[in-house]
Design brief:
By secondary structure, this protein is of the alpha+beta class. It is 43% helix and 9% strand. It has 3 domains: 233 residues, no CATH class; 188 residues, no CATH class; 127 residues, no CATH class. It contains 25 helices and 14 strands. Pfam families: GmrSD_N (PF03235).
């Protein structure tokens, strides 16, 4: 690295650098996430002389970096939900500064503790629609200088009683505590020697009537030294202005908390070329997909960026050049369409009956989004893609059927494991080449990947494994949905045992005359691989499933209108009585195997 360890500085000096905008945060940094208790523990550690680890800064001197990258100020007035974002700071024309590579959470905590406020929701209060101090009162960090904490009576084993309090809470304290506003230590007189520090401390204690309290004298003196005198901020200063080098450092040095992804780093480049607040727009989209009642899929910023690259026909790989200039300008200009397409894609997937757990490979949604975005789209006339109407049940019936089949097949075959960028690029190429076709090009995809490691071929061994899949397996729904494509997946569907599970209990089977004296047959009936697997499962509408309960299948089926053996994927020659369950399994296994083989044939 082109840098070196600099002479350590005091916390007070670091705070001055934050105030003067000498320290800034690059846009690649995540939001501030520490709780008040974490900040209190940090200050307790400092008072006790514990190390708070080294920091890493990036000395920014290059005018091009200042122009092409976005930086933020430190957060001073944190408010849960309503004040969590760092203020933007325009560095064009700004003097040289240091961007924090490692240590954002600690420095922000020190800054809030000494200069800022922390607001969180009061218990038993509803969330307001806008920031409301009566629900989220701003709190400042105080230190009780009257007496130490009992280490055995607090979970964090703290020695010093730091606490974020409102002014009212501080004023109402009548239990012998003396609260000192921690930030006031910065306003005490400058002192060079230990004796001078003591004089400053005693002068303050006399004003608050605590001059005779030995603990107060020792505590406030310790706080003065910890913040004003001791050089506790040890840091490495990186001076290289080469962005690839600095991005690599960001990844390698983020060893605390959740590791940074490369998309987090590239975000700073994208943001600089995005007129609006790219981070907010992308995070808003992530939240809609995560928390929308008709979606609830756990995607992240990485996924959104990759999808945006894919939909705009860019190189899908996370490379610096893919997030600069014209490419970002195109993504931004099409952002409303891109975000709408992504939302409709996940609504479509949810309508297939899949949820976050069963959609194991989230990248499987990207080829679908690409197809929906470009199918029928004409930029010259302003015509949008079919994503606008794909979730209207009267339209695109064949498209939905083929997309659902491809999705379930790809999930079951695990085609998205490893080499994701190459696979997405090739799938996009195939879909793009066949865009003039009437519907989603499933047949062409199967043909193109036949014989490759990512093929969709269902051979005998694979089919055998599928048929043994148990009801509670994450892939069970996809298997049944693939076998039963004509169901209405917008309705509540449930996995159900054809022959009820209750019939296979040890007690019930012991009462069956046809099994007495036949241990081998009994073992077959007891085996979960037989009665709890795909061969004894189907999908039923919720109302039908409730009516079925534990009744014998043959008796229940006679009362059902609109249900047939063919619709339930049961061959006509399969016996339905419970005593013939073994023959039923053999017949249905062969029938399902034939269906699977047809699915893998173009």
């Amino acid at each position: 690295m082109s840098g070196e360890y600099e002479k350590a500085i005091s916390i007070g000096k670091a705070i001055q650098n934050i105030v003067s905008r000498r320290y800034l945060l690059p846009a690649i940094q995540r939001k501030f996430t520490w709780s008040t208790s974490q900040i209190e523990v940090l200050f307790d550690s400092i008072m006790r002389g514990y190390p708070i680890n080294t920091f890493m800064f990036w000395e920014v001197t290059d005018a091009e970096v200042k122009t092409n990258f976005r930086f933020y100020q430190f957060l001073e007035k944190y408010c849960e939900r309503f004040g969590e974002n760092n203020p933007d700071f325009d560095t064009r024309g700004h003097g040289n500064f240091q961007a924090v590579i490692d240590g954002q959470q600690r420095l922000t905590s020190l800054y809030i503790g000494l200069k800022g406020t922390y607001a969180y929701r009061l218990p038993r209060k509803w969330w307001p629609k806008t920031q409301d101090d009566s629900v989220l009162p701003p709190r400042r960090l105080y230190l009780n200088i009257a007496a130490p904490l009992d280490e055995e009576r607090n979970e964090e084993m703290m020695s010093y009683e730091f606490s974020f309090l409102t002014k009212q809470e501080r004023d109402k304290s009548t239990d012998g505590k003396c609260w000192f506003l921690v930030g006031d230590v910065l306003d005490l007189e400058e002192a060079e020697t230990a004796d001078q520090v003591l004089d400053v401390v005693m002068s303050h204690l006399e004003k608050v009537g605590m001059s005779s309290n030995a603990y107060a004298r020792k505590t406030l003196t310790r706080l003065y030294f910890a913040v004003r005198r001791d050089t506790l901020i040890h840091y490495y200063n990186e001076t290289s202005q080469k962005i690839d080098h600095v991005l690599d450092i960001f990844i390698r040095t983020n060893h605390g908390g959740t590791p940074l992804s490369f998309s987090d780093l590239l975000m700073s480049i994208a943001i600089a070329n995005w007129k609006k607040d790219a981070r907010q727009q992308i995070d808003d989209l992530v939240d809609k997909v995560r928390f929308g009642s008709d979606m609830e899929f756990s995607i992240d910023r990485d996924w959104i960026l990759k999808a945006a690259l894919a939909l705009t026909d860019a190189d899908i790989r996370f490379k610096v050049e893919n997030f600069a200039g014209a490419q970002v300008a195109r993504i931004e200009s099409e952002w409303d369409e891109i975000s709408a397409c992504i939302l409709e894609t996940f609504r479509l997937i949810r309508s297939f009956g899949l949820n976050d757990a069963s959609l194991r490979a989230k990248n499987a949604a990207i080829p679908i989004a690409y197809y929906l975005y470009h199918k029928g789209r004409d930029a010259s006339t302003g015509k949008k893609g079919v994503f606008l109407s794909i979730n209207k049940q009267a339209f695109h019936i064949q498209d939905r059927k083929l997309i659902r089949q491809w999705l379930h097949m790809s999930l079951l075959k695990g085609v998205f494991g490893g080499q994701g960028d190459a696979l997405l690029t090739n799938l996009r190429k195939t879909i793009k080449a066949n865009m003039p076709a009437e519907a989603f090009p499933l047949t062409k995809i199967i043909e193109d990947y036949r014989g490759h490691s990512k093929d969709l071929l269902f051979d005998d061994d694979f089919i055998s494994r599928l048929l043994k899949t148990q009801k509670d397996d994450a892939s069970c729904f996809s298997i049944l949905a693939l076998l039963m494509p004509d169901l209405d997946y917008t309705r509540a569907l449930q996995k159900d045992h054809i022959h009820p599970a209750a019939s296979f209990s040890q007690d019930k089977l012991s009462q069956c005359e046809f099994l007495k004296g036949k241990p081998e047959a009994l073992e077959f009936f007891l085996s979960r691989e037989n009665w709890n697997s795909i061969v004894n499962l189907h999908l039923l509408e919720e109302s039908r499933n409730k009516s079925k309960q534990d009744r014998p299948f043959a008796d229940w089926l006679k009362e059902q209108e609109g249900l047939s053996l063919d619709g339930l994927l049961i061959p006509a020659d399969a016996p339905l009585d419970f005593a013939s369950f073994r023959t039923f399994v053999e017949k249905r296994s062969q029938h399902l195997s034939n269906i699977f083989k047809e699915l893998g044939s173009p």
